[in-house]
Amino acid sequence: MQPTFLGIGVQRAATTWLHNRLAEHPEIFVPAEKEIQFFNLEDHQSKGLAWYLSHFHSADRESAVGEITPTYLHEADPREVADMFPGLKLIVVLRDPVDRAFSAFTLVSHRFPGKSFGDVCHRPYFFGHSLYADKLRLWADVFGWDNLCVQLYEDIQDRPRDALRKFFQFLGVDADFQPSGVEEHINRIIYPGLQSRLDTLRLGWAKEIVKRTPIGDWIRQRHIRSIGGAGRQIRHRLVANFLGDIEETEKLINRDLSSWKS
């Protein structure tokens, strides 16, 4: 079975939530493993196309088959993807670029001991992955705008059922299907070091419990304070740098992104 769609972006924009909701739909197949990273990692590409397609072997009669790797938007070559799978439908979720960059930092801050978000926010992993317009245009030039469904993180936060309905309609499946867990918290993390420790102890199941309890909120806020937060000065500086891209993105997707500019 070959994929009919890809979720290509972006990181820290509810793509895990989306993967889990798509997996519940009886007409959609996604592999158990999210983020296969076939089109952006050479060591995965070296395993060959058969390795990639093996992730879809369990697909049966589903009309929509695909996977979500949110780094594809920035790290994969759409022409190479189209050479293998022309006509793919592409799903994109965009997020306020400063919020996205800070969320990415909270996840990997343990790799930057003694550094605050302000110290590293202009590194490509944080800043570059929050630039959208050129990458969207590049993918649209190859696959066509009709084959891109772009929604916002805010859409999923504020109106998750409506957002899912649009994705389902785009993929050509029953848009009235109601998955469970639609209202669950999105992109909630606990202190990354604790997450890694729980994984090492094979207590990964405990992460979801901690995330949903008051202690999870306490740990999360304590961690955010410890890494400096995305303060107003930092935000204003970054917004000024992102402004041109935000305005280009507004035109491309025909959405008002005023909330990203302040």
Quick take:
This protein has 262 residues and is an alpha/beta fold. Helix content is 48%, strand content 9%.
Structure keywords:
262 residues, alpha/beta, Rossmann fold, 5-stranded parallel β-sheet, 9% strand, globular
Description:
Helices cover 48% and strands 9% of the residues. The chain is α/β, with parallel strands linked by helices and 262 residues long. The protein has one domain: 3-Layer(aba) Sandwich (Rossmann fold). A 5-stranded parallel beta sheet has the order 2-3-1-4-5, with helices on both faces. Helix 8 packs parallel to helix 14. It is globular. The termini are far apart.
Q: Would you identify the CATH architecture?
A: 3-Layer(aba) Sandwich
Number of domains: 1
Major beta sheet, strand line-up: 2-3-1-4-5
Strand content: 5-15%
Spans of at least 5 consecutive residues with low confidence: 218-228
N to C succession of SSEs:
EHEHHEHHEHHHEHHHHHH
Please give the alpha-carbon distance between the first and last residues: 45 Å
Query: CATH class, please?
Result: Alpha Beta
Please state the CA-atom Rg, rounded to the nearest Å.
19 Å
> Assembly type of the shown chains?
single chain
* CATH topology term: Rossmann fold
Provide the fold topology.
Blueprint: E1 5-9, H1 15-24, E2 28-29, H2 42-45, H3 49-53, E3 64-68, H4 72-75, H5 78-84, E4 89-94, H6 97-108, H7 117-120, H8 133-143, E5 148-152, H9 153-158, H10 160-171, H11 192-200, H12 205-211, H13 214-226, H14 232-253
Parallel strand pairs: 1-3, 1-4, 2-3, 4-5
Helix pairs in contact: 8-14
